[in-house]
Write a structure and sequence with these properties.
Catalytic activity: protoporphyrin IX + Mg(2+) + ATP + H2O = Mg-protoporphyrin IX + ADP + phosphate + 3 H(+)
Strand content: 5-15%
Number of strands: 36
Enzyme class: ligase
Structural class: alpha/beta
Family: Belongs to the Mg-chelatase subunit H family.
Pathway: Porphyrin-containing compound metabolism
GO molecular function: ATP binding; magnesium chelatase activity
Number of domains: 7
Number of helices: 54
Length: 1267
């Protein structure tokens, strides 16, 4: 007889095999068992074997089966079999295939059951609530006893209910009894020949230890047993949460190894198993006890909690109840770590997989647990390839034990004894870039952190100020022997690590030598010693992280995926960990290089560089709240606990200088039209580089309206002002700015009016009409400004005097009825409190004290106010909910606007669009970029029975109403890592379209795939690859490094570099393979390139990644086709200019950002208020603007002229810059001269000569500093 078992978990394999073998011996049975892990069924050969096995099976059993990729094929297979089937705790579609004799869940579901089973089953439906699993299992236990004595027609129902108990009490003995029951009842010829017994029942909640005689159901008896062992465990307690099925299945070698490794370090390993997928009972019973008289407060009985099942604390497979988990963990206030047992892979396949964990593993065992704020996801064991039995990965087990012990030390050590390393970054590496981070005043923030540490009892030699700290690190102030220019380094040298000591302390140096030569290599050493950049201040070391090492030679990274950090980088972390002996490291700002070092994408292994470099160091990362994607990489690859920081306040850009003057002229003309004034306005517009779409002579009204609209877009554009400082709350005026914008774009409750909608309605306008009519009607522009100004004034009164004052003001000025905006005032008041109170400093201190940092989504505060308070641990999204329904609606609208505009400009609909997808904007928009890709293809997502995104389906051409557009999706390495499931959705949609029997003129995907298959001589499956990224474990196109360094002689090199780095395609198996020829063929049909803008604070000139990606793919298409494609962007809806669509050309965006930020006194004075770092931020924007010239030739000459006049030709400004940061000032001059030399700017000779003199003078000053 043949039994086939299907499951996601390997907890049953050993018990089933042992039970079958025992029964075969005892009763002389010809019993064979086939156990299939659903994770393995992506292999076509194994799936075929399963299909054949199911057809010849005598009984089929399945449990814990989820995931559309396996559910749909299994559904078809089960429909073909005739033997008894029992599917439990799985997707409802599969459960309905259960049929045992006269009992059929399919018949019960469709109403055709005549046996009376339905009423009994309804009592088993789960209810919500803490302890529900226990209630339900007790009900099943009672039903099992009752059903034994009911008439025969209920025997099959008894079997079904009993199977649940056998499944969850899965000891080898119980598996024997299960086999006996099923054989006796359902295999012909065995009735009455085998004993039928109930399963042994085990406690729902107990402490387990591999040396204990039995599990303990109370803490007192466990502690008595532990004391009798006489094993010294005085270094803390780790609470490990497991599942009963794991313990009872006796497949526990990996869990036993965790216990042993912790005990070897003197740490008690308190393993608690739970019956269900809710870990809170373990916390309540064995990890804490309530404090009398303090409602909700508990005293922790453990120093750290770690899950060993890989699931979220509450919810289990494919789901998470994060709010409930957070409440329990926040009350406990100890770190929560994530240990992952392999389920969808075996140990050997995981070690060999460049990706690390499979997409299903990442979704189920990493992403969902991150919503609970689980940190340090670590693979510690899994099934062996040979036996399928669980084995530990000992290196990983030891790594967890060491990191847990170091975390516990943070809780137990006195602050005065702790050592902390505070690490700053330096990108691009030079003396003008030290202490840089996204929108953070790093030196002032670091100084404030040092001050807080000192106040908390840490031994810190405090500098006098943030500026004093900067001078220590940048100039070597206070100790001339550390000066960077003395050593040829980018920052002061605070310590040395002798070469021999490096080799002894970091034996992995031998794995670096194939890439960087024999130690010490060329970087950061004098031949005998490594130079550790930084300064020791008592028990705190403020260090400067070395750069990757290839920034000045980007062609070096054209190598394959194999790479390594340089010796100097490894020496830096080795010195911090082993010589300075830091108890923790605090990385200061977004972002550094450690987490992007080579290795697996997620589920790092023994040889992955981030894990090897960090070793046992607890990693606390002060991270920008608007960057959840790269923050998630830091969590998964850098074992980081994030503490988020707020972005600087955003304001409307306003108008200035010539823009203000032309606005005044327009207002004057509108009051008294005059031909001479109109001509003067035309002259002013030409001088300012404003677009002139209408003729001032042929259509003066249209000319004025268009010009007014362009000015309004600049005026209303949201821009961040200055940099954030740790512990500094926004001023009242900054709060007015922030809260006014939130009230403009957020509704306090669904259906409630926004602030401007309410004001417009009171004035008798429709706000939607104002917004849509702005481009053509100056009257509407005036009304729009009126509404905006009144709303802002109302928020000012709210903050000054409260809700009643705001209501009274709006009633008087705009006839808005009191109470209309009550919910808005309540929301803004709550946000004000969260913004004014410092949560970031307490978050950092709590992390350093070994506490729990609660989770938070990441976004900008205007788009998602729930990101405040900051000071929390950033996470991504539930991958099973992306793209959301809202993202699909918005994405479809953007695609409609994009295709409408491209069709208008190009004369026909484009056949192919190259799409750039990043992780960050897709997290913030819940997958809008993914939805755009599907909309272009003409596909929609399929939602399964559990409400999860499960698959894609093509929209019929008749419904679509246009051809399917071919999509070439280049995704960032971060998108590849965080959104593997979404990448597969896009890939599947492309393949469905390629296989669709549709006319080629209506399906450009099929048209191109067929042609490229023939051209390349490859299969349709290979030619259909359209999702491209880096090789697994590597990141970036490196176009930015090439442009920054000037290491390119002709444009073709930029495109060539991009295609080399991004020439890896997602195949049908969900794996990445080298496929540059396919990429070139796909890009060869591209007529437009497109990307979404990330957020309010991250425009196309703010970071170099925009031109690295969108510019890189644009240059690649130009190289292949000989002409530059149209380049378009989708502006963020919350700050797109009033009255405009979201889709803009690259040239429009460059003009808008240059006027709103780079040339705007409001913006650059906000930056210069932060001194050295602010000057560096200005240089970054100039360099990034130049990047758009290098990759897309999209910057007009007036932009460079404006930069020159604003920052260098103005003597006073030039001196300010040079005094604050001479390297930044010289960098701006160098970039302007290079723009002219490469033909991007045709400057007049007088301007050029002046710039050359300025640059020479700045270089002389730098040389003077050097001397």
């Amino acid at each position: 007889m043949r039994f086939v078992f299907l499951t996601t978990q390997d907890n049953y394999t050993l018990a089933l095999r042992n039970a079958a073998a025992a029964l075969s011996r005892q009763y002389k049975l010809d019993l064979t068992v086939g156990v299939y892990m659903t994770s393995e069924l992506s292999d076509p050969a194994l799936r075929q074997r399963l299909e054949e096995d199911l057809k010849r099976a005598d009984f089929i059993i399945g449990g814990m089966i989820f995931g559309e990729a396996i559910v749909r094929p299994l559904e078809k297979m089960l429909a073909q079999v005739s033997c008894p089937v029992c599917i439990i705790i799985s997707n409802p579609t599969l459960i309905r295939h259960t049929r045992l004799g006269k009992f059929s869940l399919g018949k019960i579901s469709d109403g055709s059951d005549k046996e009376g089973h339905k009423g009994i089953l309804q009592s088993l439906r789960p209810k919500h609530g803490h302890g529900e699993v226990s209630r339900q299992m007790n009900l099943i236990k009672g039903l099992t006893k009752i059903l034994k004595y009911l008439p025969g027609r209920f025997r099959d129902l008894h079997t079904y209910v009993s199977m649940h108990q056998f499944w969850v009490h899965n000891t080898p003995k119980n598996m024997e009894r299960m086999f006996c029951m099923l054989i006796e009842r359902y295999i012909p010829g065995y009735k009455g020949k085998l004993p039928v017994e109930d399963p042994d029942i085990y406690p729902d909640l107990a402490i387990w230890h591999p040396d204990a005689p039995k599990p303990f159901t109370d803490l007192k008896s466990y502690q008595k047993w532990r004391k009798s062992r006489r094993v010294k465990l005085d270094k803390g307690v780790v609470g490990l949460i497991s599942l009963r099925v794991i313990i009872l299945g006796d497949n526990i070698a990996h869990l036993t190894a965790l216990v042993r490794a912790l005990e070897q370090r003197g740490v008690e390993a308190r393993v608690v198993y739970t019956a269900g997928l809710d870990g809170r009972p373990a916390i309540d019973a064995f990890f804490s006890h309530p404090l009398p008289g303090n409602e909700g407060k508990v005293e922790p009985l453990v120093d750290l909690v770690a899950t060993t099942s890989g699931y979220a604390l509450v919810g289990g497979m494919a789901q998470s109840k994060a709010d409930e988990a957070r409440a329990a963990l926040e009350a406990l206030n100890v770190p929560f770590l994530q240990n992952i047992p392999l389920v969808f892979q075996n140990v050997d396949s995981w070690l060999a997989d460049d990706r690390g964990l499979s997409p299903m593993h990442i979704a189920m065992n990493v992403a969902l647990a991150e919503l609970d704020s689980a940190t340090e996801p670590l693979v510690y064991g899994g099934p062996s390839q040979d036996s399928g039995v669980a084995v530990p990965v000992q290196v990983q087990v030891e790594r967890f034990a060491e990191r847990a012990a170091r975390r516990i030390a943070l809780r137990r050590k006195a602050n005065a004894e702790k050592k902390v390393a505070v690490v700053l970054f330096n990108y691009p590496p030079n003396l003008g870039s030290i202490g840089t981070a996204a929108y953070l005043d790093v030196f002032e923030s670091a100084y404030r952190l040092l001050t807080e540490l000192h106040a908390a009892g840490y031994r810190v030699d405090l500098p006098a100020s943030g500026e004093d700290l900067r001078r220590m690190l940048v100039e070597g102030k206070g100790d001339p022997t550390t000066a960077p220019l003395l050593h040829g380094t980018d920052a002061a040298v605070g310590a040395f690590l002798p070469l021999e000591e490096y080799r002894r302390l970091f034996p992995d140096y031998t794995d670096i030598e194939p890439f960087w030569g024999a130690a010490p290599g060329e970087l950061l050493n004098d031949g005998k010693r490594f130079q550790i950049m930084g300064r020791r201040l008592g028990n705190v070391f403020v260090g400067v992280q070395p750069a990757f090492g290839y920034e000045r030679d980007p062609m070096r990274m054209l190598m394959a995926k194999d790479a390594a950090p340089h010796h100097g980088f490894a020496a830096f972390y080795t010195w911090i960990d082993r010589v300075f002996a830091a108890d923790a490291v605090v990385h200061m700002g977004t972002h550094g290089a450690l987490e992007f070092m080579p290795g697996k994408q997620a589920g790092l292994g023994p040889k992955c560089w981030p894990a090897r470099l960090l070793a046992g160091l607890p990693n606390i990362y002060y991270y920008c709240v608007n960057n959840p994607s790269e923050g998630t990489i830091a969590r998964r690859r850098g074992a980081a606990t994030l503490v988020s920081y707020l972005v600087p306040p955003v304001q409307q850009a306003g108008l200035y200088k010539g823009l203000r003057a032309i606005k005044d002229s327009i207002d004057q003309y509108r009051q008294r039209p005059d031909a001479g004034l109109l001509e003067d306005i035309q002259t002013q517009a030409e001088k300012l580089g404003l677009s002139l779409q209408e003729s001032y002579t042929d259509n003066p009204d249209g000319f004025i309206a268009t010009l007014s609209h362009e000015l309004l877009q600049v005026e209303q554009r949201l821009i961040p002002i200055g940099l954030h400082v740790l512990g500094r709350a926004p001023s009242t005026q900054e709060l007015v700015d922030i809260l006014s914008l939130i009230a403009t774009f957020q509704r306090p409750t669904p259906g409630a009016p926004t602030l401007p909608e309410a004001v417009a309605a009171g004035l008798g306008y429709r706000y939607a009409d104002l917004s849509t009519g702005l481009s053509r009607d100056p009257v509407l522009q005036d009304r729009y400004r009126q509404v905006e100004n009144l709303g802002r004034a109302a928020v000012q009164r709210l903050l000054d005097a409260g809700p009643q004052a705001a209501d009274t003001f709006l009633q008087t000025e705009a006839r808005v009825a009191p109470g209309t905006l009550s919910a808005t005032w309540q929301q803004l008041g709550d946000l004000r409190s969260k913004l004014e109170q410092d949560h970031e400093t307490p978050g950092l201190l709590n992390a350093l004290a070994g506490g729990y940092i609660p989770p938070s989504s990441g976004n900008d505060v205007v788009r998602n106010p729930s990101v405040v308070p900051t000071g929390r641990n950033l996470h991504g999204l539930d991958p099973y909910r992306i793209p959301s329904s809202a993202a699909q609606v918005s994405g479809t609208k953007v695609v409609h606007d994009l295709l409408t505009r491209l069709t208008h400009e190009q004369g026909s609909m484009p056949e192919t669009v190259a799409l750039i997808l990043w992780g960050s904007d897709n997290i913030k928009t819940e997958g809008e970029g993914v939805a755009q890709a599907l909309a272009l293809i003409g596909a929609r997502v399929v939602i399964d029975e559990l409400g999860k995104v499960a698959d894609v389906a093509l929209i019929p051409l008749e419904e679509l109403g246009r051809p399917r557009i071919d999509v070439v999706a280049t995704v960032s390495g971060i998108f590849r890592d965080l959104m593997a499931m979404q990448a597969q959705l896009i890939d599947r949609a492309i393949r469905l379209a390629a296989e669709a029997n549709e006319p080629e003129e209506r399906n450009f995907i099929r048209k191109h795939v067929l042609a490229q298959s023939k051209e390349l001589g490859v299969s349709i499956e290979e030619a259909a690859m359209r999702v491209f990224s880096n090789a697994p474990g590597t990141y970036g196109a490196n176009v930015n490094n090439m442009v920054e360094s000037g290491a390119w002689e002709d444009d073709a090199q930029i495109g060539d570099l991009f295609m080399t780095r991004k020439g890896f395609a997602l195949d049908q198996r969900g794996e990445w393979q080298a496929a540059r020829p396919v990429l070139e063929q796909a890009l060869g049909t591209v007529q437009a390139t497109f990307q979404n803008v990330d957020g309010v604070e991250v425009g196309i000139s703010d970071v170099d990644h925009y031109y690295e990606y969108l510019g890189g793919v644009t240059k690649s298409v130009e190289k292949l086709r000989g002409t530059r494609p149209t380049v378009m962007l989708a502006d963020v809806e919350a700050f797109s200019g009033p009255g405009s669509g979201r889709v803009r050309s690259l040239e429009q965006m460059v003009r808008l950002e240059s006027r709103a930020k780079l040339l705007n006194p409001k913006w650059f004075e906000g930056m210069l208020a932060h001194g050295y770092e602010g000057a560096h931020e200005i240089e970054i924007r100039v360099s990034n603007t130049y990047g758009w010239s290098a990759t897309s030739n999209a910057v007009e000459g007036w932009v460079y002229q404006g930069v020159a006049e604003t920052y260098l030709l103005d003597a006073a400004m030039r001196e300010r810059l040079a005094a604050l940061n001479p390297h930044a000032a010289a960098g701006i001059a160098r970039r302007l001269l290079e723009a002219n030399d490469r033909g991007f700017w045709d400057a007049d000779e007088q301007t050029l000569e002046h710039l050359r003199e300025i640059y020479a003078d700045l270089e002389d000053r730098l040389e003077g500093v050097s001397s």
